């Protein structure tokens, strides 16, 4: 009887470990990176697999809540968080959208890099694409604008790529290059001064 109880206990522990492992492993990878910066290339596909747009630029992240996406081509847009406000600046439209920063914001996939208890926000599984391991994160919020978010890392824990599939089955593929991790980044880097004669929209 004791042997049977011990066998069942070990089996349950193994089962729980297997189910918990993807989220735990992803949390470890994300927690390793206190900051990173580099460049990115972004391709947007429609639900038929046709390319809608290609873009590139620079990205900077710093925990606990700073980030900056600077698009260079085809449009010079900026998405910046100073820790309190997220600014989405479109110089072509002379418009900036301001939203309150929140780590629980389910519509901003970039915030996954800041979340410590990732299992509270995502169901995490793994998948293999061409022999490479990807972490597949499905939002637990019904209000999220995207269905899944997938991340790929190199052997040193640097993020290499991110796939996002939205509710309309469009796909955004982001490849990161020249990534530097855990470097010193001044918080002043994330300050955003709203240009003059720009329309301000507050969410």
Question: What distinguishing features does this structure have?
Answer:
single chain, 203 residues, alpha+beta, 12-stranded mixed β-sheet, 47% strand, globular
Can I get a quick summary?
The chain has a single domain (2-202), classed as outer membrane lipoprotein receptor (LolB), chain A, CATH 2.50.20. Helices cover 15% and strands 47% of the residues.
- What is the name of the CATH topology? outer membrane lipoprotein receptor (LolB), chain A
- Rg over C-alpha atoms, rounded to the nearest angstrom: 19 Å
Characterize the largest beta sheet: strand count, sense, and whether it forms a barrel: 12 strands, mixed
CATH top level? Mainly Beta
Low-confidence spans: pLDDT under 50, at least 5 residues?
Answer: 2-20
Q: What is the overall shape?
A: globular
For the termini, the CA-CA separation is 62 Å
Q: Which structural class matches the secondary elements? A: alpha+beta
Q: What is the arithmetic mean of pLDDT?
A: 85
**Tally of separate helices:** 1
Q: How many strands appear in the DSSP assignment?
A: 12
The largest sheet has its strands arranged as 7-8-9-10-11-1-2-3-4-5-6-12
The portion of residues forming beta strands comes to: over 45%
CATH superfamily: Lipoprotein localisation LolA/LolB/LppX
Number of domains: 1
Architecture in CATH?
Answer: Clam
Fraction of residues in H or I helices: 10-25%
Q: Note the run of SSEs as H and E.
A: HEEEEEEEEEEEE
């Amino acid at each position: 009887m004791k042997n049977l109880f011990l066998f069942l206990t070990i089996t349950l522990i193994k089962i729980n470990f297997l189910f918990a492992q993807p989220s735990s492993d992803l949390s470890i990878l994300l927690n390793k990176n206190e900051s990173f910066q580099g460049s990115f290339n972004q391709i947007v596909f429609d639900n038929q697999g046709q390319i809608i747009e290609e873009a590139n630029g620079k990205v900077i992240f710093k925990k606990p809540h700073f980030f900056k996406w600077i698009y260079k081509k085809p449009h010079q847009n900026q998405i910046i968080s100073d820790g309190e406000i997220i600014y989405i600046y479109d110089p072509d439209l002379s418009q900036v959208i301001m939203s309150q920063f929140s780590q629980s914001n389910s519509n901003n996939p970039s915030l996954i890099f800041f979340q410590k208890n990732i299992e509270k926000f995502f169901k995490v599984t793994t998948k293999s694409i061409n022999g490479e391991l990807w972490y597949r994160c499905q939002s637990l919020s019904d209000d999220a604008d995207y269905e899944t978010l997938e991340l790929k890392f190199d052997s040193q824990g640097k993020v290499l790529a991110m796939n996002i599939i939205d509710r309309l089955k469009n796909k955004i593929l982001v490849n990161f290059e020249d990534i530097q991790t855990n470097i010193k980044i001044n918080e002043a880097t994330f300050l955003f001064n709203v240009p003059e004669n720009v329309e301000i929209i507050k969410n």
